[in-house]
Amino acid sequence: MRITTPRWTQSNGATRAVALEVLIHGPLSRSEVARRLELSPGSLTRLSAPLLDSGLLIEVGEHSDGRVGRPSQLLDVVPASKRFIGMKLMAEEIAGATTDLRGNVLATERRRLQARDPQSVVATIAELATSLRRGSPEITALGIGVGGLVGEHGLVQSAPFLHWNDVPLGSMVEAVSGLPTIVENDLVAFTEYEHWFGAGRGLDRFAVVTLGAGVGYGLVIHDEIVRNDEFGIGLIGHWPLDPFGPVCSEGHRGCAKAILTDTAIAGSVSQALGRTVSYPAALNLAASGEAAARRIVDDAGRGLGRLLAAIANLTMPEAIVLGGEGVRLAEVAGEAMEAGLRADRDPRTKPIPLAIRSGDNIEWCRGAAVVAIQTFVLGHRET
Ligand SMILES: [Zn+2]
What we know:
Elements: H1 13-25, E1 28-29, H2 30-37, H3 41-54, E2 57-63, E3 72-77, E4 83-89, E5 93-99, E6 105-112, H4 118-135, E7 139-146, E8 149-150, E9 156-159, E10 164-167, H5 169-177, E11 181-185, H6 186-196, E12 205-211, E13 215-221, E14 224-225, H7 256-260, H8 262-273, H9 279-287, H10 291-315, E15 320-323, H11 329-332, H12 334-343, E16 354-356, H13 362-376
Parallel strand pairs: 4-7, 7-11, 12-15, 15-16
Antiparallel strand pairs: 1-3, 2-3, 4-5, 5-6, 8-9, 9-10, 12-13, 13-14
């Protein structure tokens, strides 16, 4: 994939570090940036010069830290100076959002998928991008989040929900839309938003758990997302949670997929009541005190709590973000979740801060946009 990048994105890592520090934590005084990055004032002046020239960074007044000496200039970005589009690919539709340089959502739209073959999906992506560009013509890059295994150069190696194998989605979309395009696993994208601009900002370690059609898990340690070639498989899906739970397609009794997914919960409630019940309806029934739904949803909530405890015990995050379209489970079964979490934690441990997201698909789109920001603005990854 050949991408034309602005001059400063090809600059060295130290310049990128300055840009990143100000993008994520700005406005910051020059002295604070120098302190955080362990740079001399002279080095910072040299490194920030191309960023100021290009317009990515601006000077926004002065800050006095109360010590003797001249006040230090404040550096910031102009979030509105660049626009990005982030999209989330789903089995039935595509959701899209336009964001600024800090991942703030400016506009949203969605399109139904007419068919799931790559050409049709790419045509729908291009249509959605064209429509979003009517409001923001100058788009720097497009990010697309896909639930599945995503390889180098925008290759979707496998996406079971679309029955795709080895689809060069990135180059297909670039050819049709003309936009520099980055394709990433959707959970990586979701986690990167939280990492840079969300609940994980400034934390050394945090985890993300998403609920919905699957169960997702993302972990950031020392400012880097932990991943390997198997990340997109959804490795936490078969984590054992309930020795008496239902059986998943792989034969595990009570694994995360068998008790926490929306289909698992809707299926169990439907079976208990002898009629088909959707996931939102199953949660509504539980909330209203219907006995069978209450029991099934509480069992799921307890399982979710045990999963959070396992994550807390094994990876020691400073916070856990809960998201995904099925996240309302954490609210409806909040007490059971807390009980499950406490049961598997040492009594001397402190409560782990939980950030519970709304579950709106726009949160996935925002993540996909952040991946585009990382790749195309800051040269965070080779393209
Ligand atoms: Zn399983």
